[in-house]
Design goal:
Order of helices and strands of chain A: HHHHHHHHHHHHHHHH
Helix content of chain B: 55-70%
Shape of chain A: globular
CATH class of the domain at 29-192 and 205-336 in chain A: Mainly Alpha
Oligomer: heterodimer
Number of strands of chain B: 0
Helix content of chain A: over 70%
Strand content of chain B: under 5%
Radius of gyration of chain B: 17 Å
Amino acid sequence: MTNLLSSESSKEKKGFLYDWETERVPETMTRPWWNLAYIEMGLFASGFGIMMGGLFAGSNWPWYSILSWLIIGNLILLVFYILIGSIGAKERVATPYIAEKIFGPYGAKVFNVLLLIGILAWSALGVHQIALAITTFTGIDPNITPVIAIILVLLSSIAGYKTIAILSEIAIPFFYILVLMWAIYFGFKVNWNAWGLNQPWGGYWPTFWSGVTFVVGLNIMASFLCPNWSRYAKSTKDVVKASTTAIFTGMVLLSFMMSTFAAYALTPQDTFADPSVILTRCLGPLVGGIGIVLLIWTTADNDFWYLSLSAVQLYPKIARWIYNIVLLLGSLIIIYAGVLYRYIDFASMLVVIWSAIPGMLIAHYYVLPRMGVHVDVLKMRNIKFNVIPFVPWAIATVIAYYMSREGLPFPELAASMTALILYS
Amino acid sequence: MGKKAQRLKMIRRAGVILMFLGFLIGGLLIFTTEPGTTLFVVYSGVGTLVFSLGALMTFGYEVFVSEFWKGTWVPGPGHEYPDDP
């Protein structure tokens, strides 16, 4: 009873903005599986889903091939999401702290700095896209809209899971019921000849498996970030239910249905599958504008949430929400300085390093314990900086780089498997 | 069941009705229109607003409880509704 009371008063003190960033999420703060699925769906939504629909619709491949890519690719991804998500449900701490179990507390700081450098580019891009969408739909000066976009993202990411959940609880039912109905509506009106015409805005996939590689490569890296939300799960069963629902509705259903919008909206004169153009032409400036802002917003707030959790691991004495504000202001500076797209070029090069991490996480939590190695081995031996995982990480990165350059299928999967085997 | 829980259940029930209304307007009536017409814009716009409000009341019902804003309670398995003081 005394423990319960002290835990309650401690919760009072931590307040609304606290996201359990430095300690285990308590049982009383866990969320239902459907709520976890909403968070994950929000991350997957993004304008990229619509753009992907555009790429698919003009790709010169029949619809059943595209659907097969999505199903096969996402089944592979689902294995990673469930295995790594379950680690979060078991440990109840965020990815930056799980990294400590592999790299040690100081080694994890290297990992988190790289994560901050890499993901900040994409997070700033999300803010920039929201700003551009607001300018397009309202005519507000593009010098002002980045500030509006920052305020929106701040509102939904300031308290971490709590505020991200509020946005997702509104946006996800909207996407999966109303937007889906509209996709069916446009399905009856679409010029289905757009399929297989190899449109200028379509993607180029020479073989069936290059299409599956595209689907897997997009999202395998995001799997190691799953513990950031799955730490709020009550059980691994909830993670399985949430991930399966999110992946198959978010990636398969939404991406596939979005190609209907793209096939309706885009013409051979369009050279790029621009999500804003696709939704505006289909739904008009008001609802199309709300749709595109919500799509990008639900992804951008997840990005800043993840970034701020990594920042906390670097220096835990500062609260996560303060890092959140600083990172948002940082992205504003990047946008106003006009260096965003050069930064994204750099972050795109950096992307190749992430494929190894899911493999090492799976090895650490599922393979090593079977070999008699405890998951907390570094803590037990008081090792602060573990050099060992940096070796398979480097080798797997080189493999992913060369496979991508040579156009071989599944470079990310190969890198992950290499890291898994070498680390084990 | 406490008063708070009962009030929240009513809010959620009203939310489901609003979502259904929004679905009727934005999801079904829209099939009677052509893209880009005034009726299309009205149905999709009103449907979005009504449906989104319903979604907030149904799924995001925690926002109607002061304990949530104090950071002492969130809805979850085994603790779907806050206790009365």
